[in-house]
Structure formats: structure tokens, C-alpha cells
Amino acid sequence: MKKIFLIVLSSVCLMLSCLASAEDKVTLELKMKDGDMMPLTLNAPANKIIRIKVTNIGKGPVEFESTQLVKEKVLAPGASSVVVISPKKPGTYIFFDDFHLNKPKGQLIVK
């Protein structure tokens, strides 16, 4: 009887842990096409893990890069990946395509 109670208690704790972690994350989407970023501005809440799903819809390679966020990710045409950013304080964080520096830079606004 004690084993069944411990198994049920462990299952409930695991389920609550999963629910709490889902609330601590936010997922954003960014499309990159030959140096253009859509959208140019991403908004995220402060103090949450930020996941940016980056998709290259262009014909050449792209590189999501941010020196402020200390992140970089190179994507071949048609590829997708996720950049995970630790919880941030409110502010504006700039990102750009390192292969297309002549194109407008994007910004992540954390509020």
C-alpha cells in the first residue's frame, strides 16, 4: 500500500513540475529570408525562458546572431531550429543576420 501511495505521489509531483515549466517559457517565431527578418520586432515577457523558432525561407544561408544575447545559429535554406534564451530583464536586445549585414536589424523587446 505504501508503494502505491509513493508512486501516485511521484506522478502528481512530476505532472505539477511539467505544468510549472510550461508556464515559465514563451515561444516566438522568426522567419529569415536572404537577410530579411519577419517580423523585425519580437516581444517577450521578462523573467521567462524565451524560445525563438527560426526558419530560413530564403534561397541562401542565414545566421541569427546577437552579441547582447550571446547567441548565434546558422541555418541552411529550408532549415528550422530553436534558439533558447535564458530569462531576461526588461530591455531591447538587437539581433541580426551575420551573412547580410546591410539589411535592417531585428530587436527583441522584453517587457
TrEMBL record:
Pfam families: Cupredoxin_1 (PF13473). The keyword Zinc does not apply. Residues 7-110 form the EfeO-type cupredoxin-like domain. GO terms for cellular component: cell outer membrane. The keyword Hydrolase does not apply. Keywords: Signal. It is found in: Cell outer membrane. It comes from the Bacteria. InterPro entries: Cupredoxin, EfeO_Cupredoxin. Residues 1-22 form the signal peptide. It is a lipid-anchor. This is EfeO-type cupredoxin-like domain-containing protein. It comes from Snodgrassella alvi.
